[in-house]
Amino acid sequence: MKLQELFLKYKNRKALLLAVTWLTVLAYLILYFLCSHSFLDLWPFVHSDESWLAFLSRDMAVNGDFGVTESFFDAKARVPHALRLLFHALQALFIRLFGFEIASVRLLSLLAGCLCLMLIFHIGRVLSGKVAGFLLM
What is the C-alpha separation between 66 and 91, in angstroms, rounded? Predict the structure, then answer.
């Protein structure tokens, strides 16, 4: 009987440690997201590529057509590649949900950054343990 109790105690301890680890990571990501989101439309200033891509996404959302290209390239027929379509489709979704503002355009990059932080934590945890995962984040 004592062996079973010891096993259950160890199993619950391991589950608790795992839960605390993931809650700590989640709290860090939420803090990172909130801090970054508060500066999303203030800094850095808009880069030329950012506005160019945002207007393309807006045009795709307004026209409902993923074949939209920049008007100054209309002299020659162009076919947009698939990776570009995925980015613009996601960005157009954020523009439709939150309006055409710099914060809504940058929100996709912020969420991708949070996902990358989770991925880096997981890779560091698998390769070197929890401490290395936290340090890499």
Answer: 12
CB 117 within 8 A of CB 106: no
Q: What is the tens place of the pLDDT at every residue in 36-73?
A: 999 888 876 777 788 888 888 888 888 888 777 776 66
pTM: 0.76
What is the mean predicted confidence (pLDDT) over 101-127? 91
Tokens found for residue 31: 């803090």
Cα–Cα distance, 8 to 13 (Å, whole number): 8
Tell me which residue of 127, 121, 126 sits closest to 28, measured CA to CA.
121
Q: What is the 3-state secondary structure (H, E, C) of the chain?
A: CHHHHHHHHHHHHHHHHHHHHHHHHHHHHHHHHHHHHHCCCCCCCCCHHHHHHHHHHHHHHHHCCCCCCCHHHCCCCCCCCHHHHHHHHHHHHHHHHHCCCHHHHHHHHHHHHHHHHHHHHHHHHHHHCHHHHHHHC
